[in-house]
Every structure is written in structure tokens, then in C-alpha cells.
Amino acid sequence: MIRRLLPHPALSVLLVVVWMLLVNEFTFGALFLALVFGVVVPLVTSRFWPDRPRMRFGRDALAYLLIVIFDVIVANFEIAWIILTRRNRDLRSCWLVIPTELRSAEAITVLAGTISLTPGTVSSDISSDGRALLVHALDVADPVAEVARIKQRYETRLMKVFR
To answer: What is the pTM of this model?
Structure first.
């Protein structure tokens, strides 16, 4: 019964939270409308997601989120230091091809978004077969080690979240 009413519980919660943040005031009417949207939108759109990915919201997802937040904060300081202390000609920017074992489009999108959120790197393309990401990095001493770091730090954790 609950599964039929809430086919995408995470989307429902996300819609309620985003709606309340957009309204920017906590009233009964705003909360009621947020709950209506949180139930109706996933119900209406569920037929467009016939083979949605199975996600595990729990310790693995929380650990991934904390790793990403930590990496974004650290990368901000690293990039600020690089910009303030290095000349342009001393930067070691390069293109990285990151082969991925992720198969769901949603998981690959989360990986690409994570890479783009981290200052100093940006995902720019995905191969036509979905097995590799093209990433530009602002300053990389060892491209092979950087690819291995991204795979170990993000991809292995995402494989636990998207089963």
C-alpha cells in the first residue's frame, strides 16, 4: 500500500524539502502543499521510470555524501593556493579518461556531478557506450594516480549505493 502511494520515497522527501526551502516560511499551508507535491509528482511520473535504479539510502550513501563534502572543502583551499601561488605556465592541466564500471545512467550522472562539483575538475563528456568519462583537471602531477584516486574514492562507494 505504501509502495503504491510513494513509488519514489526519496524523490517525495526531496520535493517536500525543496518546496519548503523555496517557500522560505514554515506554515501549515506551505507544508500541506509540499506534501501534496511530494505525493502527486512521483505518482504521475512513476510510469516514466520503469527500470529505476535500486539505491541503498543508509550508511553507504551517508559516507559518500560526507566524503564528497570533505573533498569539496579541501579542493577549494587547494585550488585557491594554486591560483595564488602558481603562474599559468606552471599548471599541469590535463584530460583524464576515467573508465567506469557503473552501468546505470543515474550512477554515472552522480559520478560526473561529483567530479564537476569538486573544484579543479570538470566532467566534460561520456563515451557513447557509457564506459568512460572524459574529465579535465586543472593541476595533476600523475594522471594515472588521479584516475585511480577518483575510481577508489568515488566509484567504489557509488557501486555500493547503486546496486
So the answer is: 0.74
pLDDT in tens, 111-159: 999 999 888 888 888 888 889 999 999 888 899 999 999 999 999 999 8
Contacts of 15 (CB under 8 A, 6+ apart): 34, 37, 38, 41, 42
Cβ burial, residue 90 (10 Å; 0-12/13-18/19+): exposed
Cα 33 from Cα 29, distance rounded (Å): 6
As beta bridge partners, residue 18 has none
- Diameter of the chain measured on Cα atoms: 62
Q: How far apart are CA 117 and CA 119, in angstroms?
A: 6
* Closest alpha carbon to 114 in 63, 52, 69, 159: 69
**Alpha-helix runs per DSSP H in the chain:** 2-5, 9-23, 28-45, 59-85, 105-117, 143-150, 156-161
Angle at 119 between CA 116 and CA 122, to 5 degrees: 30
Contacts of the segment 84-91: beta carbons below 8 A, 24+ positions apart: 86/139, 91/138, 91/139
